[in-house]
Structure of Delta-aminolevulinic acid dehydratase:
Amino acid sequence: RPAAEIAAAPERSGHRLDLPVRLRRNRKADWSRRLVRENTLTVDDLIWPIFVMDGKATRTPIASMPGVERLTVDEAVRAAEFAAKLKIPALAIFPYVDPARRDEMGSEALNGANVVCRALRAIKAEIPDIGLITDVALDPFTSHGHDGLLEDGRILNDPTVEVLVRQAVTQAAAGADVIAPSDMMDGRVGAIRAGLDAAGFEDVQIMSYAAKFASAFYGPFRDAIGTAKTLTGDKRTYQMDPGNGAEALREAALDVEEGADMLMVKPGLPYLDIVWRVKEAFGLPTYAYQVSGEYAMIEGAARNGWVEGDRIMLESLMAFKRAGADGILTYFAPRVAEKLTAG
Ligand code: PBG
């Protein structure tokens, strides 16, 4: 019978299916939905990526990441203070390097007084209890925008690893708690572990970007660190092909063998299957990076009034938890933390 007729029929209450199981029962009220919820998002799940630059008391907006700004070191300290107040466990620091300080080799990456190292020291001095994660890769420091050393159009693997080890030790010496190599060179996790240990930094953790894909979702980030225009070619000879899943497990397996303490998958939402598989396969603390393009899509649509920004923000972060992530790097971190704290 047509639905309208059933609805109009006085005897409609008699139309009962004989169902022993009705999943809607558990959804009938907010208290019940909360009681049966399998995953929760808490402030402890959040890592806040911030961008630091030279200068004083300045915040520069990033056009393709509305609401996100590059911060001078003093402003980064204020941001860290705010994060600590919200109980966000850790910050991930990325630099915007003055173009005059960039060169072919990314030498500035090894300068113990570069903007990342100065931010590390300044934040550690004032807010010692917040975790500081640093990116190991050369792209913010090279004139060509690649993560490694470029020779005749090729990114050299082993010589790059040697530089990355020195970059990691430089960051550890400035106070980094966690080294996060995002370069995707072969063998870098083992080499960095050995280099850190040899320099007396046995306690510095490694969060490896185990499965990092060659993704268009990084576009706004490259605006943020100022490499969008300078990058020559693409990163497909070192970042992974988006069509591959089994290979992500091989990448993660090697990083685990080489001593990674934590694994990360990146981008996030389009790669939830990888998050799930990596967590299932290795059981290590596993993180997802909700990258700049994901942020821009949500925030851009929200600011246009096309979607409900806050709800999408929370729903997307919950999806990472459901996929098995132990935490998420997200530019929404402070906003989410404020919301979660407000209840
Ligand atoms: C580079 C690096 C990238 C991101 C983090 N580290 C971009 C890239 O590989 O080009 C992207 C983060 C984001 O998009 O939010 N080493």
User: Anything to note?
Assistant: The mean pLDDT is 96. The pocket of PBG is lined by residues 135, 137, 139, 147, 182, 218, 221-222, 235, 291-292 (CB under 6 Å).
